Amino acid sequence: MPEARVTSQDVARLAGVSQSAVSRVFTPGASASQATIDKVKRAATQLGYRPNPLARAMITGKSRIIGLVVAYLDNQFYPLALERLSNALQAKGYHILVFTTPNSGDGLDRIVGELMDYRVDGIITASVAMSNGMTQRCADAGIPVVLFNRGQDGDGQSSVTSANIDGGRKVASFLAAGGHRRIAHIAGWSGSSTGRDRARGFTQGLAAHDRLPLDVIDGMYTRDAASQATRSLMARADPPDAIFVGNDHMAFAVMDTLRGELGLRVPHDVSVVGYDDVPLAGWAAYDLTTLRQPVNRMVEATVDTLLDQIETPGSLPEKIEIQGPLILRGSARIPKDWTQ
Amino acid sequence: MPEARVTSQDVARLAGVSQSAVSRVFTPGASASQATIDKVKRAATQLGYRPNPLARAMITGKSRIIGLVVAYLDNQFYPLALERLSNALQAKGYHILVFTTPNSGDGLDRIVGELMDYRVDGIITASVAMSNGMTQRCADAGIPVVLFNRGQDGDGQSSVTSANIDGGRKVASFLAAGGHRRIAHIAGWSGSSTGRDRARGFTQGLAAHDRLPLDVIDGMYTRDAASQATRSLMARADPPDAIFVGNDHMAFAVMDTLRGELGLRVPHDVSVVGYDDVPLAGWAAYDLTTLRQPVNRMVEATVDTLLDQIETPGSLPEKIEIQGPLILRGSARIPKDWTQ
DNA sequence: TATTGGATTGCATACGTTTGCAAACAACGA
DNA sequence: TCGTTGTTTGCAAACGTATGCAATCCAATA
Question: Does A119 contact chain B (CB < 8 Å)?
Fold first, then answer.
């Protein structure tokens, strides 16, 4: 015998007031006298009343739901971000509708449609780029979008990333200062701004030391491509003595391939540096030197700018970049007197 | 200039029919002539009309939203399950509202309240147990619940797990047959059915070989507790030569501690066996022998039984156990002639 | 005491859909 | 031609809330 849902009508009847009064008591910023507030609250707790967010959404047009689109759930970085985002948004009274999608554009299109159906108040895409068409659709519908860990040209779009170019530069300086002779880069997917920016920063950083990368290969953000790239690099006549890998997830594959398959030692034969600093990077099995993306601060910034755009009409999209430090561990030779 | 939302009224006007007709065309199983179907569909695509799921939910009481409650997102097993669940449910036209919670009971209580507010059609809890009170609340509200990777006594509750007792037995036989003399167990959290069942099966399995576990320590499903347990085990006068760990996530910590901190070799000095077979277990750095939980089949079973209870009124909760194989890798000595 | 103005309240409508009901209609055999 | 049956259709009432408007209240001022 399912218990009947209790509505604001029921509360109103019990409290001896009108339904509107009940509504006002539960609507922040509405006017009600202390006397009615008391009566209503008492009746409400007695009946176990809670406002129906769906009905509320119908009226106000605000669902208090945020759509989260995420692609790479096998990369530890994203579950972590998801968890933090979820907690931060829950604390602000929002909830998360998740969509998983391959990064290819066609599924995403359908998803954006469904998100708009549900009248989500905002959208966060983690490591997923939106086409201009989709951006436009969301803008037309008045739904703010924040790209998490992905940038996009043009300024209709909010995004939160780490300072990828700068990060690439830091890694380059670090490896150059470490006395490495032949430094290669297995890059993040060239279809992503993060991948491109890190690669660009890296090349710039080497150039500042009058050096060129030995090679740059697209690792597609997958283990397979990264392993393959590692093999082809090490098969060269002049194999690299250091590899900067576009993210930790690939860096683990690189290390697995170097050590397990090719029998090389890290960092004795080859130094490896990653990007992200996921928890696994700190585990003894990898002990990976890597450039940290500060998840917490990125999440904070994402939530702040998204809620700002939702709740403060007229606030503009912004592109936020967050600096991250290089975390020194055992997978790469550390230059003497390295203080930076 | 946000484009005005197009409603069934607009479509009706354009198609020259009543609003109800439009609704019937978009409601599966409602009656409408081919002529009106055509007219309405044409008008709908012309205007870009899509039914509003929130308004629909108000009437029908069905939101087509599933609440997913998840605790351990740093254990690779759960992001994977989340991804699969999300895909399977999306394919059936459902969507996932995620809630993250620590496993302690108080936050969960609030979450169940919010889930009921949103009139979710069903709830999946991943590795989170629900108190009897919460189970009852959901039952009263007519919301089916499926526990994923966690069991619960009493039969009001659906659950999908792997065959944990059996799995524990298999590992015991394997380690016993491998000629290990002192076999210890770092168990999953004793507050969880999975942890208890695996431990029980393991003890039973050893008993079948007339053996006793050297020791059983609760690893709490955390890396820290598992590392600590490893240290205390290896500090014994008679340290184990094999450790069965309650899940892969802890097993990695155990291996890190054994190899990195204690300078031991795996499996030469100590064999390690895990439980789950997350992708990381197959990576060269760990190469972990482990009992596989077949995520795909567990997800299928979860979705099937949940949707069954949602869509077929009167269908009963069921407890499903799925067998998994032992995956042989390099972290544990393999018995001669092992065929099982 | 009469007047004013602000705070509080109820009435009624709206949000966008589904669905019971009865009217309209089409098809068909008598 | 006329009932009869089964299918389509429109009307109107929900679902549970927020909110503009006008009415009411209350205290404070003149």
Answer: yes
Nearest to B289 by CA among B245, B335, B336, B332: B332
Domain B164-294 in CATH 3.40.50.300: no
The torsion angle over the Cα atoms of residues A96, A121, A108 and B49, rounded to 10 degrees, is 130
Q: What is the pLDDT of residues B177-213, one digit of tens each?
A: 999 999 999 999 999 999 999 999 999 999 999 999 9
CA dihedral B167, B169, B171, B172 (to 10 degrees): 160
User: Using one digit for the tens of pLDDT, what is the confidence trace for A307-318?
Assistant: 999 998 788 889
Give pLDDT tens digits for B22-72.
999 999 888 889 999 999 999 999 999 999 999 999 999 999 999 999 988
**How many Å does it take to go from CA B40 to C1' C26?**
21
Q: Name the residue of chain A whose CA is nearest to B136's CA.
A: A2
Mutate to test the interface with A, among B7, B70, B98, B252 (most CBs of A within 10 A): B98
- DSSP secondary structure string for all residues of B175-231: HHHTT-SSEEEEESPTTSHHHHHHHHHHHHHHHHTT---SEEEE-TTSHHHHHHHHH
**Does residue B53 lie within 7 Å of nucleic acid chain C, judged by its CB?**
no
Topology alike, domains A65-162+295-322 and A164-294: yes
Query: What pLDDT does residue B4 have?
Result: 67
User: Could you give the CA distance from residue B326 to residue B307 in angstroms, rounded to a whole number?
Assistant: 30
Say how far apart CA A235 and CA A238 lie, in whole Å. 8
* DSSP strands (E only) in chain B: 65-70, 95-100, 122-126, 145-148, 158-162, 183-187, 215-218, 242-245, 271-276, 289-292, 319-322, 326-327
Average pLDDT over chain B reads 93
Kindly indicate the confidence band of residue B109, based on its pLDDT and cuts at 50, 70 and 90.
confident
A132 touches chain B (CB under 8 A): no
The residues spanned by each domain of chain B are 8-51, 65-162+295-322, 164-294
pLDDT at B84 over 90: yes
Distance from CA of A330 to the nearest CA of B (A): 12
Query: Quick check: B73 contacting A, CB < 8 Å?
Result: yes
Domain A65-162+295-322 annotated CATH 3.20.20.70: no
- What's at B203, amino acid-wise? T
A60, closest nucleotide (Cα–C1'): D18
Strand D-proximal residues of A, range 55-94, CB below 7 A, are: 55-56, 58-60
Model confidence at B155: pLDDT above 80: no
Report if CB A35 to strand C is under 7 Å: yes
